[in-house]
Amino acid sequence: MTGQQKKGPTATGGAVLRERVTEAITEAAFAELAETGYARLSMEAVARRAGVGKAALYRRWPSKPAMIMDLVRGRVADSLPCIPATGDLHTDLRALLASYRSQLANPLLALIGAELLAESRRDNALAQMLHTEVAAPRRLAALAILQGAIDQGELPPTLDVELATDLLIAPLTFRMVILDEHCDDEYLETLTSAALAALKASVRRP
Amino acid sequence: MTGQQKKGPTATGGAVLRERVTEAITEAAFAELAETGYARLSMEAVARRAGVGKAALYRRWPSKPAMIMDLVRGRVADSLPCIPATGDLHTDLRALLASYRSQLANPLLALIGAELLAESRRDNALAQMLHTEVAAPRRLAALAILQGAIDQGELPPTLDVELATDLLIAPLTFRMVILDEHCDDEYLETLTSAALAALKASVRRP
Amino acid sequence: MTGQQKKGPTATGGAVLRERVTEAITEAAFAELAETGYARLSMEAVARRAGVGKAALYRRWPSKPAMIMDLVRGRVADSLPCIPATGDLHTDLRALLASYRSQLANPLLALIGAELLAESRRDNALAQMLHTEVAAPRRLAALAILQGAIDQGELPPTLDVELATDLLIAPLTFRMVILDEHCDDEYLETLTSAALAALKASVRRP
Amino acid sequence: MTGQQKKGPTATGGAVLRERVTEAITEAAFAELAETGYARLSMEAVARRAGVGKAALYRRWPSKPAMIMDLVRGRVADSLPCIPATGDLHTDLRALLASYRSQLANPLLALIGAELLAESRRDNALAQMLHTEVAAPRRLAALAILQGAIDQGELPPTLDVELATDLLIAPLTFRMVILDEHCDDEYLETLTSAALAALKASVRRP
DNA sequence: TTCTAATCGAGACGGTACGTCCCGTCTTGCC
DNA sequence: GGCAAGACGGGACGTACCGTCTCGATTAGAA
User: Fold this and answer.
1) Nearest by CB: B201 against A119, A178, A194
2) Which of D3, D50, D47, D41 shows the shortest CA–CA distance to D23?
3) For D204, which DSSP code?
4) pTM, 2 dp
5) pLDDT tens digits, residue range A17-45?
6) Is residue D33 a part of any domain in this protein?
7) What total number of domains does chain D contain?
């Protein structure tokens, strides 16, 4: 919960958004998200499920998108960014891909993620949030590993790290998010090797 | 338009869905899709915009998903599958990626595509349609080129064509669909080279 | 059937409203009237029941009220006006009331009658029709008997025949139409006596 | 307003139907009744005219008949029952008839009344309501006067008060409701005299 | 402890859209 | 041309939620 709540004690008299209510709403909202999805989710249903008045929701967030955005931000922040570092490039990249896989395999987050992604094309605030809270930290992990390998001479300094990151991350993401198919360990192993071969053959900035 | 319309003359006189009305609805539906998106699209608004009664919509399709699915199927089928074949592997792959890029760059289809993709996780019929009508034919083009190269000895016969296809298509798709960023010609060129390097380094079936 | 049909053979080619169709519509319309009433009757349902296209109805009548009015006019005209004349005043009046009773006891006509009466307050054409086709001929029978009695000296020539007619007809009509109660023979007998007493006590024009 | 509203404060806070809204609906409903009649009245139009959501209507009444029934019941209950009692039989009966006349002369109630009467033949609940709320109280006034006259010896104890009531009320009602004609004071005076003559000539139970 | 003001549940409020039914008109192809 | 069939634009049905608002009742910090 990182949203816009007024929690601190106010000047006169006692009236603060109650923690228990916020928790009940959060739980109910994720349950509804899982069952009916973002597009069809109704504030009415969340309130009903939480045993709470609708006003309790609108007292905390100005709208449905704002609420969901805030809740998802909180939950995604929890899920680790995961930066392995054994020093061996192949091993580290494989571990990174495995970490991505485990996150993408969470059915609830995959479900909600796809809907938020679609929504983000019409909602710049949402797009911004998704970028800074979700995409950027994850991409950073890959960049860190690649940069480390360059520093140690394992990869050429002319490497286009952006494209290299795409080559690593994209096939896995594509397969799981767009094709909605599972990726087994062999796929991960082969993918790591292939990507590494491409990088070593030198993916250069033009 | 491939849906369930009863167009041909029936046995004993009778009535037939009128072409002009169907066209008006189609046009209005895409305009609404562009403006408000799939999730928020309302049948009422489509009918209003088309200058048509709601019943005219429900006479043609049983529901909103069915209508959109049918309309999108029709439009996507029009947009070419695009199979270049100069014989030169690098050139062909680049041309293929350029063709993909031009389709993904259509803002309306990108917009709708993302929403349909999200929706398809909760609607198997939609998922099936997207696979057979959209994904499969496009993937086929890539597979054809790769298989041709294998047959001519340019690529090893042990190549895992599925993974190879991912390596080719995924980075472009990932960048345009998920990151919503443009890919210039240089990106395409570098990507083609990198992917080709990876393939030649032999992506093998396990 | 006395309405506006074009029945006679027309000048060019053969196109005449077909008798069988008109009959089927008439039958279906009365069946619908009996089941659902005038207000809820739907042209669609009449056409369906008659096994006929809706256009066949609108080719014959311009609207639902016009159709029903025309059909009811035809049927009411059939039901006799009934003018008894034994010469004995008490007997004749009783017979007249019995005749009224039998008509009002027809459940279909009572049902439709009440609805048409209500409708007639908003539809002058209907009101006019009901007056000239239904009310006037029936009232005439009562007036004829009373006038005969005056001519023979049984009733004073100063009798207000309009009010006298009300005194006779109204209680029976009131009881059957408004209270929706049955009137047995004893009621009829007592009513005849009472009305006669009132008349003889001389109901005078002011 | 005697309907099913939940007005009193409920146990645990909550919401209550607001008086102002109910009033706006009532006013709009009678205006619509006057203009378009019961059969053609649409809930949508009432809501529109009242500046109110449709739900506000359905929150108060389950259906159109229930709403109209409730509103009419309320309004009719307001209109006085009117029991004159000077002690003089002729004067009292004339006053009673004048009171009836003034009520039947209300064009709105006459209009609605006819429609409800017609409808009541197909709706037992409505028929019951009309009987107990409208007919019975009015009939009671007449019965009271007649019984008083019997008790004081002005009318014979064998008088059939039911038939006697018909003789009094029916002609006036018949003329105003069925013939839709006005009754002037002279008609009332002559009617009172004639009915009284009939009663004194002794309308007996068989 | 008492005061007091914001939060609580509940749900009514004016709206919009749903998918269905019927209106009265129009269109098609057969007879 | 009449006919059966039924599509057409339109409008009302009764329901579900939207986001706002109005109630008493509850609750917890400040006095």
Assistant:
1) A194
2) D50
3) B
4) 0.83
5) 888 899 999 999 999 988 888 888 889 99
6) yes
7) 2
What are the chain C neighbours of D161 within 8 Å (beta carbons)?
none
Same domain, residue pair B87 and B57: no
Indicate which CATH number applies to the domain containing A45. Answer: 1.10.10.60
Chain A residues 60-79, Cβ below 7 A from strand F: 62-64
Question: Does A148 score more than 80 pLDDT?
Answer: yes
Q: Are residues A83 and A135 in the same domain?
A: yes
Rounded CA–C1' distance between C26 and E29, in angstroms? 27
**Is residue C38 in a domain?**
yes
Q: Are residues A50 and A26 in the same domain?
A: yes
DSSP code at position A135? I
pLDDT band for D55, please (50, 70, 90 cuts): very high
Residue D87: its pLDDT value, please?
79
Domain that holds residue A34: 19-71
Chain B interface, best mutation among A167, A169, A172, A186, by max B CB count within 10 A: A167
Torsion of CA D111, D117, D119, D124, to 10 degrees: 150
* H/E element, A125: helix A124-129
The three-state secondary structure class of D145 is helix
Kindly state whether residue C161 falls inside one of the protein's structural domains: yes
pLDDT at A124: 84
Chain B residues near residue A120 by CB distance under 8 angstroms: 180
Q: Which nucleotides of F are covered by protein (CB under 7 A)?
A: 1-25, 27-31
A204 - beta bridge partners?
A: A159
CB of B111 within 8 A of CB of B37? yes
CATH of the domain at B126: 1.10.357.10
- Identify whether residues A149 and A62 lie together within a single domain: no
Q: Is the CB of B132 under 7 A from strand E?
A: no
Predicted pLDDT at B106: 87
Q: Which two tokens stand for residue C200?
A: 């003889």
Q: Of C54, C71, C88, which residue sits at a domain end?
A: C71
Q: Please report whether residue C106 resides in a domain.
A: yes
Contact C167 D194 (CB under 8 A): yes
